[in-house]
Amino acid sequence: MRLTVLLIAVLSMGLVACSSSTSYQAAEKRGDYGYTETALGKDRYRITFNGNSATDKETVNDYALLRAAELTLQEGYSWFHLVNRDNDSKSRTSTSVSGGTGFGGGTSVYQRCGLLSCDTVVYDSPNRFSGGVASSNTRTSYSSSLEIKMGKGKMPNDAEAYNAQELASTMRRWMSTGSK
What we know:
With 180 residues, the chain is α+β, with helices and mostly antiparallel strands. Helices cover 28% and strands 42% of the residues. It has helices at residues 2-19, 57-74, 164-177, and strands at residues 34-39, 44-50, 79-98, 102-104, 107-113, 118-124, 128-130, 133-151, 161-163. Strands 1-2-8-3-9 form a 5-stranded antiparallel beta sheet. A two-stranded antiparallel sheet has the order 4-7. It has a two-stranded antiparallel ribbon with strand order 5-6. Helix 2 packs across helix 3 (164-177). It is elongated and about 65 Å long.
C-alpha cells in the first residue's frame, strides 16, 4: 500500500512538472528551459529563451526581451537595438491505446514525463486486449533568440530600438500582475 501511495505521488509530481510553464530564470545549461546569453562582441549579445510545452509563444518572446533589457542595464548601457530575431518551435506527439474487445497482441505508445522533459515509450505486448481506441496528444514548445547591439546616449529612432529601463519596468509589471 505504501508503495502504491509513493508511486502515485511521484507520478503526480512528474505530471505537474510537465504542465507548469517555464519560470523566468537562467537555464542551467544551453538547451535547458530558461534564458542563456552569449557575448558576440563588446556591445553585442545573443539572448535565447527556451520554454516548455506549457509556456506560450508570446511569453517566451517577452522573457527574451526582458533578459535583453536586464543584460543591457547590467552591462552599463541604456538602450539596445534588435539586430536579428529568430523564433523556433518543437512539437511532440504521443499516442496511447485504451480499451479493447478481445485478446491479442499489439503495440502500446505512451508519454512518460519527468521533471524536465517528456519521453515517448513504445513497447509490444503480446497478451493484451486489442481493438482499443487510440488517442494522440501534441505538445509544442517555443524558443526565442535575439541578437542585440547595446548603446548609450541618444537612442536610434527605430522600431527595433528599445529603452532598456522602460522595457524592463514594463515587463516586470506585466509579470507581477499576470496581464498585459
